[in-house]
Amino acid sequence: LIHLKVDGHPVKVAPGATMLDAIKKSKSHVPTLCFHPEFDPKAVCRMCLVDVKGWQKPVPACRTKAEDGQEIVTNSKELISFRRRDLQFLLNRHPNDCMHCEASGNCKLQDLVQEMEVEDMWPKKTSRGSPSHPEHTLHDHTSPSIYRDMDKCIECGLCVDACSAQKINAIGFAERGSGMLPITAFDKPLKDTGCISCGQCTLRCPVGALIERPDWHRVLDVLDSRRKVTIVQTAPATRVAIGEEFGFEPGTVSTGRLVNALRMLGFDHVTDTNFSADLTIMEEANELLERVSGKREGKLPMFTSCCPGWINYVEINRPDLIPHLSTTKSPQQMHGAISRYGPIAKKIAEETKEEPYIVSIMPCTAKKDESVRPGNRGDIDAVLTTRELAKMIRHRKIPFASLPNDGVFDSPMGESTGAAAIFGASGGVLEAALRTAADALGLGGTVEYKGVRGVDRGVKVITIKGLGSVAAVSSIGSAIELLSDDDWKEKYLMIEVMTCPGGCLGGGGEPKSDDPDILQKRMRGIYHIDSTSAIRKSHENKEVQKLYDDMFDGKPLSHASERMLHTTYAP
Ligand code: HC1
Ligand code: SF4
């Protein structure tokens, strides 16, 4: 171990640790703006400059290694005034827009301004037009999922890192003039780039320059007007992350609190996307078996289709893969269709002659995009991210942290199995499908397929006797690598692709976090739900079985289910 001192206090860190790690461990504090543990530190914001005894100049703590015997000073008068000057410099270029900025309350710049008491230095200008980058498009609201307000950009580059880690590179640094401003190629609107709406850039943006398209205001309007009957669904990965916004440890399972909060917000029917995840497995596992037996068109290996970032990627870049995509709709869209035409909607129509207003809560920004795809348009009225839901809960002053964790979903559309819960983690959709396919083939064996679990970027492969090899791909960048030669065509029977690292629990709409173990922690929450579920296989979901009897001629892949639960793709 390395022994050093921070502000006079001894601290030990592992070899390779940075000064910032040591400072955090010592409980001293230096601010950071451009640092995120997922990426190599660039040290452009200079906020974490510290002095080291005997060194001539201050150094950035984020990218300077801790060494034996160092004595670090984090908060000398000179450092504090340097940081205030640096911040002032940033503020000179940043609009004074907090009153109507979507990032307000969740913005590192705002936090710093308050922490360092420099509010009074902020020039009184708002966001219309930025003198610093007149040559670039600064306001881009063309994407159905992502808004860019680049006059708020502090040029930390974390969005560029995020997009490049995804190997999409829809945004990059401008090469001339204002060298550091992240722009799209040729300044095209985001909708005309290769952007797949994954939202990883919004997850890393420390300010309000890149955000999910805000839809929560109009949902609150509908709830407040009380003129429509509302149905809300909530995704598998939201329940293990929403608590972070209210002080819970990451991975805390807050399903009951979440249901209670949604009812307090005024939603009339609180239903569970997990119900439709079980339904998805019924269709998808049987689709796989029919492709294997040759009863159905569509190529093998079959790719999962529930991740809209992945679908966007295929349609934009690899239309040759379309015949490999499962035609099964995502759980969100199946749930939307059943909310629109199923038993709850029928009851609402009988009572009010009205159609319901249908909302979904997702860990994902691309789900906004998915809801307006041609085949889906109209089923879901608004898609909110986990972060947007947290905002609504705060705005309505609902005491989330002290709510009992005992709320239960409505029935029907509320029952779900452990197989549905694990949809929220990379490998989960595949594992859930294997549970059902293995039973259908009478293979017996295990419920758990641990070889496909794990949140790291990359490809996990397992081979199942009597079936073949399957792969789970965590992050679109890893999928791009896998697909770069044709080996996959021979090797696998089914491939799950999740765009975001770790799967939906790492989604672009989840709470922002600087915890390097955040994905692991959320994953533990997900598998805890599964291992403690009474029923762990989708085909044993009683409500799903009843739905098949009532709406879909008693079985998956019937004419009725093909019409409502399947979709098509187009380049
Ligand atoms: Fe997902 Fe899915 S798992 S895609 O990540 O198939 O968003 O959570 O809701 O639709 O169920 C997201 C999560 C989610 C769908 C399901
Ligand atoms: Fe890149 Fe994803 Fe952001 Fe689009 S949404 S710019 S693909 S990180």
UniProtKB/TrEMBL annotation:
Record-annotated 4Fe-4S His(Cys)3-ligated-type domain positions: 78-117
Metal-binding recorded as keyword: yes
Disordered: region residues: 123-143
Residue stretches making up the 4Fe-4S ferredoxin-type domain: 144-173, 187-215
GO molecular function, one term: metal ion binding
This protein's UniProt keywords: 4Fe-4S, Iron, Iron-sulfur, Metal-binding, Repeat
Keyword Repeat annotated: yes
Biased composition (Basic and acidic residues): 133-143
Family of the protein in this entry: Belongs to the NARF family.
Designated name of the protein: Uncharacterized protein
Positions spanned in the full protein: 31 to 601 of 711
